Structure formats: structure tokens, C-alpha cells
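A quick aside before the break. I want you to see a complete sequence-to-structure record at least once, exactly as it would be stored in a machine-readable document. Don't worry about memorizing anything.
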Amino acid sequence: MLRKTILSEGKNAYKDNVFDWQEWSAQRMVSPEEIEDRIKSMNLVGRTIEDVRLVGYSYWHSKDWIEETAYGLLSEGMDEVERQEKSEYNNISEDLTYERYVVIDDPFLIKFTDGNVFEIELLQVPEYQFSMNCIPWNISPDKSSSNNVDASIVFSPALGKEIVEVEVAKDYVDADPMTCEKFDEVGTKREIVTHIVLWLENDVGICVGGFMDYCEVLCINRQGEVLPIPFRELKKALRN
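That is the input. The structure line, written in C-alpha cells, reads:
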């Protein structure tokens, strides 16, 4: 597990406007104190969200995952043939409810009404990278990725809302979150940041956390529940 900040040598010089990890100047941070101080320096409270977008791919929004999720949501008491049929993409009920979240491994971009753009990513648990105005809003994904979902639809409850609070949630762990190996020192625990939440005036939160080396961004309420989105709305966001 990374134990100290790693400064990037990136210059935000993206060739042909294509995202390049080596060029992103955001530093890699794991220290809760550094993450908290750095996030405060961004002065996010008081800013109003105009739009959000993904740089790259959401693993939870491929056609296969959409169908697999539908299958899991349908009643297990349903006849198997009918369940399979109703979970096929073109047969999914418009009323079927999914959750408002994405699973990514590229930055998540938030544009504010003042013209500034906040960029954030969980590189791997618990390493965060974030910056302001370091990635062009209209940047394209690299050749190994693609943009398969319109995040502004998935996160529509956040649009036009002001940030009223930024929560940096922390916890103590006794093993490396990536490898699950216990720390060498017996009984040692280390504090890590588990997730960062931008709380909005309507009590909706944009929660950035994740698992392993995937970043998970969720649209949640104050109870920590992921907000629902009916398939009729979600399918407008899909670019499969």
C-alpha cells in the first residue's frame, strides 16, 4: 500500500486531446490528512454543479451487465424461460429500477457554473488523485477505452445543485486493502480514506470510493442509499 504522496511529472499536455495518465499532473495521495487538506484547498463548498462526465468507460453499463443486472432484479419465482427473455436488452421493462452509479478506472469530471472543472479518481484503494482544471472538459478517452454512458443522465439529481459540505470518510484497517495481507507490525492499524462525498443542497451526495483498483461513483441520499433510476431514463444514457 502506498504510504506517501507521489508527485506527478505530468504537464497536462494531452496529445491530440486524448487522455494520458502520464500527463495528468494530479498527485497520488493516501494520507488522510493530505487528502483532507488538499480537498479543502479546492474550495468546493458553495460551487454549483452544471454538468458531469466520464473520461472513459463504465464497467457497469455494458450491454452484458445491463442484462445481467436485469436478470438479477427479476423475481426468482418467475419461469426461467420468461426471466431470460425479459432480461434481454430489448425486452427489459422501462419500469425496472437500476441504481445511479458508475464503475470506472478513468477520472470523473464535474463542471461548475463558474467554469471550473474538478477531476477525481480512486486509482486503487486507498490512493486518490484529484485536481482542478487539469483535464480538458472535452477530452477523449485513450484507444484502450471508450465513453459508453452519459453521466449527466445517471447523475441528473446533482445537476444545478450547490455543494454544501464535503465529507472525507475515514476508517482504520489492519491489512493492505488491495492484497488483504496483514501489516508486518502485529496489531498495527492504519487510517485510510474510504470515500469522499460532495453533499448537495438537496441532500443528494456524489460519493467517490471504490474497491481494488476500480473507482466507484455513486449518487446517494443521506442514509447512504444509492438513488434509483428507471430503465426508461437509463437507456437514454447508454451508448452500447
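Two observations worth writing down. The chain has a mean pLDDT of 94. Residues 37 and 192 are 14 Å apart (CA to CA). We'll return to this after the break.
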